[in-house]
Amino acid sequence: MKAMTRSTDSKRIAESYPPSHSEGLRRIWPDPSEHLRATASGIWTACRSAASRLAAFFVAACTALAAVAPTLAVTPESPEVLAVIDKGLAYLDKQTQSDVGGKCLIALAFHKRGVSDNHVRIAEAVQACKEMVEAERAQNYDYGKCLAIIFLSEMNSAAHRELINTYVKQLNEHQKPHGGFGYLSEPVGDTSQTQYAALAYWEMMNHGISPEADAVQRCLGWIMRTRDPSGVWAYKGVDPGGGSLVKQSESPGVSMAAAGMCASMLLGNSLGLLKPNQTEDLLAIKQEDLPPALRKEEVKKKVRAPDLPSGDVSPQQLAETLKAGRAWYEKNFTLEWPEYQSYYLYSIERYHSFEEFLGGRRVESPDWYNAGFEKLKRTQAEDGSWNDRAGAPAATAFSILFLLRSTQQSIDASLGEGTLVGGRGLPRDLSKVQLRGGKLVVEQNRTEVDELLGMLDDSKSESLEALLDSPAALQVTNVGPEQARRLQQVVRSGPAGARLLAVGALSELRKIDHAPTLIFALTDPDKRVVRRARDGLRSISRSFEGFGPPDNFEEPERVAAIERWKAWYRAVRPDAAALP
Q1: Do 171 and 216 meet the contact criterion of CB atoms below 8 Å apart?
Q2: Which residue of 91, 302, 526, 537 is surrounded by the most CB atoms within 10 Å?
Q3: 418 Ramachandran zone, left/alpha/beta (phi>0; psi -120 to 50)
Q4: Interior angle at CA 54, CA 52 and CA 56, nearest 5
Q5: Each residue of 467-480: b (16+ CB within 10 Å) or e?
Q6: What is the DSSP letter of 6?
Q7: For the segment 119-170, what is each residue's pLDDT rounded down to a tens digit?
Q8: CB atoms within 10 A of CB 30
Q9: Phi first, then psi: what are they for 347, rounded to 5°?
């Protein structure tokens, strides 16, 4: 059920009382005398005063309750998200840009929404790519060239192959001897422009076009060498040329950290050094062991170009780069970057989409997405646009690509056979796997909480193992007090897998009554349980950035996060028993 906004509810309650009392007084005294008018006036004044106090009480109560009320989790398919997206597209429908990159960015927003290729903005971008080649060559930065490559690859890589190659040649002129990309007029590399070159290379490969392996290898080498020792990247990287990393001082921060991490993952994946996690079952599976319906996937033509050779790129150095970058990003993450807010949000979406892809842990409605949606919904202008230093058309297109989870769409389109849309690997029971629309999907039977509790009584239950493989199959509805109490007991004393499912079930209920149990779960030795409890607390508190801890936390970070969550609970439940 779609939740009403706090401001609408409060306004409605506050405004409802005076009119109703006034209407009632008119009915009681339809034509009063002067005396009765005076009496009525006094009664009306008293009623109005009481109503005002009552309305104020309700407003305060609604505000207090809203502080702890759960926010409904959303996805790109949620009606409220699509309404915001379509409002933005209605604005872009009336806009255009003078440059190739701007036209392609706007067209991508329409294309990712599934709009017909005949749409005026899409057709305009295709035409501009054909007619403005020389104008784009003269541009000092590489964004337009990269966006043209990405857009044309998404549209039809075979039909536009020659034009794509033309823009790739222009892009090559931006690559410096050290491997980074930047302005034509400068010798230094630029992390932001390098990120878009990496994205262009990756999109080319997804659509069957292989970039030059040497260019990709040198690009990844530069990204790894220009990381600050702390894990962050700067806007323009200082390349030590080998040896130890050096301090990066030109505008480092969360936006460039996301850019550096995205480039590292994109390029590492293109070189075959980073692959999505796969279970041993998947790696060991034989074609003859699959149900007949699945064997069709074997003959399906693969569009993606083969992995490029990695050359002398060090896998160990790449692993260290990603570990340090991830730790810095998680510790310093914020949703805010006002100057280029929309560009940054799109970077966040790219980073997390690749984290999910390579980590094999897909989250349908992650906290960062919900927080981003709430921010964009709140800041969208009446005409459907968003605006920052990128300009309203570009900012609106970036925001829509974030809301559509554009990168996740591209990743899904690139998945090969034997990889599941909802996860990364085949389940133990192959009879649950079906071929649907050319993609492998798992048939999941919904599991009620009472069934889960029965499974928990038998820690060796095969059904419990299957549910651990597919936790999204757990149906958390109509949970009574006794069931909730048993789930809380499991969190405190059950085996690891059971604790994880119980914490997930309590988190899905989104009730503040269960906050103490989830705070206790933050002490769990299994980091999976800690992360799930943290996410549950963030949903309950409506604080999607929350108090932590980060995914890969150290013990002091866990302790600090627990104390912050305790302080939050004491603030919203001052009369509750003290937490241990």
Answers
A1: no
A2: 537
A3: left
A4: 70
A5: bebbeeebbbeebe
A6: H
A7: 999 999 999 999 999 999 999 999 999 999 999 999 999 999 999 999 999 9
A8: 6
A9: -65, -40
- The DSSP code sequence of 55-79 is HHHHHHHHHHHHHHSPPPP--TTSH
Residue type, 328: W
Angle (CA) 493 484 500, round 5°: 45
- The residues, ordered by sequence, that sit 6+ positions from 79 with a Cβ below 8 Å of its Cβ are 2
Residue predicted with more confidence, 18 or 72: 72
Burial class (CB in 10 A: 0-12, 13-18, 19+), 6: middle
Q: Which amino acid is at 128?
A: A
Query: Does residue 447 surpass a pLDDT of 50?
Result: no
Q: How many CA atoms lie within 13 A of 258 on its CB side?
A: 18
Only one residue has tokens 């992360």, namely 531
279's tokens:
């279970």
List, in order, residues 6 or more apart from 260 with CB less than 8 Å away: 191, 195, 223, 226, 227, 232, 233, 325
Q: What is the DSSP letter of 302?
A: P
- Choose among 365, 268, 391: nearest CA to 318: 268
pTM value is 0.62
The tally of CA atoms less than 13 A away on the side-chain side of residue 327 is 15
Structure tokens at 46: 């008293």
Separation of alpha carbons 246 and 569, rounded Å: 43
Where residue 491 falls among pLDDT bands split at 50, 70, 90? confident
314 burial type by CB count under 10 A (0-12 exposed, 13-18 middle, 19+ buried): middle
Sign, CA dihedral 229-325-377-342, equals positive
| Bond preceding residue 306 cis, omega within 30 of 0 | no
* DSSP 8-state assignment for residue 181: B
pLDDT in tens, 284-311: 334 444 444 334 333 344 478 899 999 9
Using DSSP bridges, classify how beta strands 236-237 and 433-436 pair: parallel, antiparallel or unpaired: unpaired
Closest C-alpha among 482, 476, 490 to residue 447: 476
